[in-house]
Structure to design on (967 residues):
């Protein structure tokens, strides 16, 4: 009796398992049809552009508190800004069509377009812009992400619907960069947000569709999965050519590349050198390189100190000697790093500001370029009294200790690992011992803040306005005596540099400002505190079924730096021949066959079991 | 964990094969002891969790705001906002206070409550891990039983070798290979499975189409998980079946004229299952923590990936919150395993 009961329940379980397995196999089969329908990247109504979301992801959709690039990409598509950035990297029209500056250099008057409407039909006027900027200026939470950009604003007013007046406390040359897509301040609709001010910190901004204005309307978002948009066909800078946009999260860049090859994705902004080299030869895929908007290099601790001059941290004191820093710089072969680490996809770095923004281009004067010259580096060190010990490692004449330096690298970066192995060999050739210390980015940041480093791998990117990147080299960013309040990049501090930094902020002629910025880059170049190796290009890959994603004219093999704002707006589907993907139906039949096999096998097993029970 | 046969000897083991199945409620003292032990170990893990995460060298504020124009004053403000300016013992007290009040904290990165983040990820995590778990247990136990019964046969050799090979393969590599074969397509195989996420955002997010869509997205991540982990069930089941195989009570069963198949299933299997049950419960507790690698390859929005992301900042409230959930799950499942074992194996009750 007992036996029979348990055998029946076992049979039931077996049948259940068989059904589950069959269901699992049938899953792909029944949706094979859906795959086929989706393969031409068009959904029920119109065309869809599918792009990989920036790999930093989205922290929050709240435009006042978000820091991550994924979020900034979304804001660029759904919220307007005062100006946009043209293909030369200079401010161009968006909400504002023109702007003037008063003779005292303190009052900016922006002329805004009339007749624009938010996505819910309410008028978009200068009052919205004034309200947004005022909120960021006066409300600490609203200033979380972008407060620094308006810290020099005295007042922002909207005398009428198409006029915005910004008064600054001190003359400020970069006002036209303050509200640009992606890296600037997004303007939000006052009629929506004014009731949210009280609880701004907790505002997730997730009632869809999100009311805004831009080339796209955000219609759906799933944390760490996707964001989806509908096109705003009446967008003032031109209608998007696609009807829908989907930003899909790929946590693993190799998976994104696979998706591009599988036709499930149309565009990846930012593949690595290996992926790029492989994709260049893939059919159905277009690749391009944009001039790099950042550099990779190493920070050398020049003697970390606080704002009042108190030394802090555990940096090796020998690195305070400019001779040693220069010798290290000349011992490093940047050309080899460029060629071997990133397959030559970039340029050897000199100036602190990257080539993407050609208006800030600076190159060392003739005769002042730092060559790769280990022999000269050795001579320099010999002359400065760094004698070699028995083990070939030089000794610091001031402390009598061997030059045994730490090199902190990002543990998750293959490039850092490759670079560091080269550096160890090159520095050994000039009698400096390097010990590689792989760390998480956050641990590196922590060591950096406390001055607990000798050399650290570092890289920075910047938008078209260089103020912030220049700022982190100023003395004002050194920490307080208690170690807090610092934001310095590498404890660099030079009064001449600081004077020029304040000066460039008030020079209104772009060429003149570039000249001052050039002098600053010259100082940084000669200080050897941030030793820059290369500017890696931004590498993009797109499906050949899409055109327009890569904007601008190619020069020297590189396209101008581009943001998602223009790429997604200008992307257009190529008229395609009706080549239906057979993948879908292939999957369907494979699924059906699999299901039949599993069900059949299950049935046989069940029958056999039943027979066995009967025999007992 | 010794097998029943060696622990108690074949003579007593034979009647144990078919005990009275009535559920015996454990003595209150036993239950209280186990509960107290669980509470203590939970308390200890909480302290360990806090200490580990807070001693980690890190600068969350600079890491979070990296690349954005944020002034020193704003950084300092943010440190105060996140409570990072307070001494560590004060942070510990507020952490304990939060836990006692059932609060999991507020994520620095996502700027929403950790409880809501965990709740969002719980479904996807359990779906992926649960599916993979059920399939690998069924598959592993079945294969282990068959190959153990005929140890040394061709079936055994092929099964064991395959399982162990897959067990030794790096998850990341296997996942990428499956992705390339079944999503991109290789040679005659056309890719037909999705590469990322758990649903296609251009399809409706409700109804039958959605469920089928999710099932389709589930195939590759679940398959990767199964292939990598099922070997442990195969090996443990195989070895316990081999140990049972020589027991005299099986001879008795055969003497009754039962088929080989019936002897295996009705008599050997129940005893051989005991070590597997322990292992199943242990793994059940860990399911909730997800699988970082698989979630990363297939961009599956699970708790493992949430934890990994939080670690890079580090987003301490998220780390502490998920750590609490994970350890609670493991401890509860171990407690259940203890109780279930008493139920399944009468000798544990007696001792």
């Amino acid at each position: 009796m007992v036996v029979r009961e348990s055998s029946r329940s076992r049979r039931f379980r077996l049948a259940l398992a068989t059904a589950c397995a069959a269901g699992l196999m049938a899953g792909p089969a029944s949706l094979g049809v859906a795959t086929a329908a989706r393969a031409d990247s068009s959904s029920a109504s119109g065309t869809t552009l599918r792009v990989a979301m920036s790999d930093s992801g989205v922290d929050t959709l709240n435009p006042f508190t978000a820091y991550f690039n994924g979020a900034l990409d979304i804001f660029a598509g759904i919220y307007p800004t005062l100006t946009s950035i043209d293909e030369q990297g200079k401010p161009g029209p968006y909400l504002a069509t023109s702007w003037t500056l008063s003779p005292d250099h303190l009052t900016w008057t922006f002329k805004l377009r009339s007749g624009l409407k938010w996505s819910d039909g309410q008028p978009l006027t200068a009052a919205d812009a004034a309200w947004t900027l005022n909120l960021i200026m006066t409300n600490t939470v609203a200033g979380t992400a972008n407060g620094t950009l308006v810290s020099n604003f005295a007042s922002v007013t909207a005398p009428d619907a198409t006029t915005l007046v910004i008064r600054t406390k001190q003359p400020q040359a970069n006002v036209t960069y303050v509200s640009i897509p992606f890296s600037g301040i997004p303007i939000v609709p006052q009629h929506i947000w004014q009731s949210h001010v009280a609880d701004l910190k907790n505002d997730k901004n997730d009632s869809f569709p999100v009311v805004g204005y831009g080339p796209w309307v955000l219609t759906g978002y799933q944390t760490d999965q996707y964001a989806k948009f509908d096109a705003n066909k009446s967008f003032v800078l031109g209608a998007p050519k696609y009807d829908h946009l989907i930003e899909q999260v790929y946590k693993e860049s190799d998976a994104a590349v696979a998706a591009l090859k599988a036709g499930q994705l149309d565009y990846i902004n930012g593949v690595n050198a290996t992926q790029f080299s492989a994709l260049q030869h893939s059919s159905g895929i277009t690749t391009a390189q944009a001039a790099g908007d950042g550099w990779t290099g190493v920070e050398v601790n020049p003697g970390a100190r606080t704002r009042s001059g108190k030394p802090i941290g555990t940096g090796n004191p020998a690195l305070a000697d400019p001779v040693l820093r220069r010798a290290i710089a000349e011992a490093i072969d940047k050309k080899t790093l460029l060629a071997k680490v990133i397959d030559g996809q970039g340029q050897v770095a000199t100036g602190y500001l990257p080539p993407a923004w050609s208006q800030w281009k600076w190159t060392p004067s003739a005769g002042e370029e730092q060559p790769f010259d280990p022999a000269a580096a050795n001579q320099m060190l010999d002359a400065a009294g760094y004698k070699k010990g028995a083990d070939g490692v030089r000794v610091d004449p001031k402390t009598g200790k061997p030059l045994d330096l730490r090199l902190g690298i990002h543990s998750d970066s293959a490039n850092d690992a490759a670079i560091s192995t080269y550096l160890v060999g090159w520095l050994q050739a000039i009698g400096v011992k390097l010990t590689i210390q792989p760390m998480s980015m956050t641990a590196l940041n922590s060591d950096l803040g406390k001055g607990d480093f000798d050399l650290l791998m570092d890289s920075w990117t910047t938008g078209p306005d260089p103020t912030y990147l220049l700022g982190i080299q100023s003395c004002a960013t050194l920490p307080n005596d208690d170690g807090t309040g610092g934001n310095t990049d590498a404890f660099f501090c030079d009064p001449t540099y600081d004077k020029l930094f304040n000066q460039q902020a008030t020079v209104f002629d772009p060429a003149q400002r570039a000249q001052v910025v050039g002098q600053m880059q010259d100082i940084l170049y000669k200080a050897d505190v941030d030793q820059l190796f290369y500017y890696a290009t931004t590498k993009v890959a797109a499906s050949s079924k899409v055109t327009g994603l890569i904007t601008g004219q190619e020069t020297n093999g590189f396209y101008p730096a581009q943001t998602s704002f223009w790429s997604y707006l200008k992307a257009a589907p190529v008229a395609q021949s009706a080549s239906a993907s057979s993948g879908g139906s292939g999957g369907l039949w494979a699924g059906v066959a699999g299901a039949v096999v599993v069900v059949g096998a299950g049935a046989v097993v069940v029958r056999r079991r039943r027979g066995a029970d009967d025999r007992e | 964990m010794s097998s029943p046969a060696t622990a108690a000897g074949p003579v007593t083991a034979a009647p144990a094969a078919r005990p009275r199945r009535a559920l015996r409620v454990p003595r209150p003292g036993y239950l209280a002891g186990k509960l107290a032990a669980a509470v203590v170990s939970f308390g200890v893990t909480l302290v360990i969790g806090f200490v580990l995460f807070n001693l980690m060298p890190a600068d969350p504020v600079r890491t979070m705001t990296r690349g954005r124009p944020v002034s020193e004053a704003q950084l300092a403000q943010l440190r105060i906002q996140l409570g990072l300016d307070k001494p560590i013992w004060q942070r510990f007290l507020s952490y304990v206070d939060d836990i006692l009040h059932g609060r999991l904290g507020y994520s620095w990165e996502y700027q929403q409550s950790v409880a809501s983040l965990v709740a969002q990820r719980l479904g996807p995590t359990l779906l992926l891990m649960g599916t993979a778990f059920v399939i690998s247990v069924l598959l592993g136990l079945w294969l282990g039983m068959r190959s153990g019964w005929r140890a040394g046969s061709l079936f055994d050799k092929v099964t064991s070798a395959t399982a162990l090979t897959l067990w030794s393969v790096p998850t990341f590599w296997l996942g990428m290979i499956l992705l390339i074969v079944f999503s991109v397509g290789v040679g005659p195989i056309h890719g037909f499975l999705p590469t990322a996420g758990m649903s296609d955002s251009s399809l409706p997010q409700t109804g039958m189409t959605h469920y089928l869509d999710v099932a389709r997205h589930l195939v590759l991540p679940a398959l990767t998980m199964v292939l990598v982990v099922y070997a442990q069930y195969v090996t443990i089941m195989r070895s316990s079946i081999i140990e049972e195989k020589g027991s005299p009570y099986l001879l008795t069963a055969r003497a009754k004229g039962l088929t080989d198949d019936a002897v295996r299933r009705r008599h050997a299997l129940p005893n051989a299952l005991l070590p597997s049950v322990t292992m199943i419960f242990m793994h059940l507790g860990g399911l909730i923590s997800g699988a970082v690698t698989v979630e990363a390859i297939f961009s599956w929005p699970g708790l493992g990936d949430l934890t990994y992301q939080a670690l890079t900042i580090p987003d301490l409230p998220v780390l502490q919150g998920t750590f609490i959930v994970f350890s609670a799950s493991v401890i509860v499942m171990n407690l259940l395993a203890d109780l279930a074992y008493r139920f399944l194996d009468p000798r544990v009750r007696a001792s």
Summary: The first strand of chain A starts at residue 48 and ends at 52. The CA atoms of residues 296 and 427 of chain A lie 18 Å apart.
